[in-house]
Amino acid sequence: MIYVRGAGQYRAPEVPSDLLRSCNTISWDDDIVKIASSNTLRLQVVDEMGGSNRSTLGVLATIAVFLQFFLQAMIIKTLGILLVDMREEFEAATWEMGTIFEFVECVNDFLAPIAGALGMTFGARPTVMISGIMITAGFMVASRASNVLQIALYLNIFVGIGYAFPHVLARANLAQHYDDRQFSLASGIGKTGSAFSLLVLPPLVQLCLDEYGWRGALLVVSAMAANFIVCGALMIPKSRQKEDGQEYQPLPGSRTSQKRSKQGMLAQLKATCVNITRRFDPILMRENKFWVILLFYVLGRIGKSAWIIYFVPHAVEKGFSMQTATTMATVAGLGYIMGITIASLAMFKEKVTSSVAFLLSLALFGISFIIDPWMNSVWLVSANAVLLMMGNASMWAASDVIMKEVLGAEKMANAYGWIGLFSGMCRPIAGFLPGWIFDQTGSYNLAFVIIGIIEMTALLPFIVRRRLDVGG
């Protein structure tokens, strides 16, 4: 989209030169355009640039989010499947390996607040593409590790750091291209990437594990992780305008440029501080609604991480073979697809509000954890896993829509970042607690019940609000 203020010379935004020439442009010279004063001209350019181009960018952004969720689920699920073999080779405790794997996501969460600032400074595309290179290198060097410490360092330094930025920037980029209603559908489509990852990757990783061992499996995963580079390439920003709200940049030698060059050191320092504050947006934490959304995300991430890391070991502990456990994890991916599809379409068609969708999803997710100890046959464990992932998928679909409705698209990158930071403080629970309880009791049953109870605490804000409304 191009903005002009009457006749004069302006720096040209990223608009094809042939389009400008067709709109009564007086002359075209590199990045300077002389434009005749005309309301018709402005409307014509806006209309031509706003249709098919915007829809194409939205589709590419949706594909990027799909890839990001597909690869994100691949990282943690792969480590969960390889946990047993790596634990036995290194003679480590279950809670040690589980905590190491969970710290990959903790590092991701701790660095999330700077993702928005990096995206604004260097651009989301190069940031995500460089992240893809780091993740690929991390899995490659981890496959050569000779002890637990090396595994921890390689995974957390390379994979953890690289993993931090695509998660935030891909979803924030998607929000720029759609309104609230369209975003609910596009976000749902993107999040089916996790479901397809759960369907496709467990059998593939298990096959690689059987044929090449866990080291060879990590090499195969490193090759697939290179698709993060493709994810970044698809993230084309909606507008190339300046982030500080200017519609155009002053030409060198103009009065505006000369005035800025005469600003004092103090004024420039103040402007820099204001710009840094705006990029990180800590003011978000003053809003009560931000803390409610934070609770949703933190609890959802704890539950999902615990299930992804420990479901296969839990199923093996119940007496199922490794192949059967992996197959049940694959079947659970169907539940994720169903949950995302149902919740996204229901909110898109305005059959339910995002809050109602979240409450129903949360109840299904928490109860599935609590009843897990009584699921002991293949069919019961598989059915419960499908319901659990349906609930989790619907929670994520509703949570993103709630965030966009409450905070707005322009604050989503920073909101995801701060949510990631606080999630990182709590995520070790997902890796440590189930593993420690298993080492103490020889069973994961109690751990799954406790995780389910923790998830249900997300109902508290709704209960408190309901009581306040009744009391008022």
Describe the structure.
By secondary structure, the chain is mainly alpha-helical. It has 19 helices and 3 strands. The chain has a 3-stranded antiparallel β-sheet with strand order 1-3-2. β2 and β3 form a beta hairpin. The longest helix is centred in the middle third of the chain and has 46 residues. It is found in: Membrane. This is Monocarboxylate transporter 12-like isoform X1. Keywords: Membrane, Transmembrane, Transmembrane helix.
Short description:
InterPro entries: MFS (IPR011701), MFS_dom (IPR020846), MFS_trans_sf (IPR036259), Proton-linked_MCT (IPR050327). With about 475 residues, the chain is mainly α. Helices cover about 75% and strands about 5% of the residues.
Roughly how many Å is the radius of gyration?
A: 25 Å
Multimerization state: single chain
Tell me roughly what share of residues is in helical segments: over 70%
SS summary, helix count: 19
Order of helices and strands: EHEEHHHHHHHHHHHHHHHHHH
Measure the end-to-end span: 47 Å
Principal-axes shape call: globular
Query: Based on helices, strands and strand pairing, what is the structural class?
Result: mainly alpha
Strand content: under 5%
The overall pLDDT average reads: 75
* Low-pLDDT runs: 1-51, 240-252, 254-258
Spatial sequence of strands, sheet with the most strands: 1-3-2
Strand element count: 3
- Report the major sheet: 3 strands, antiparallel
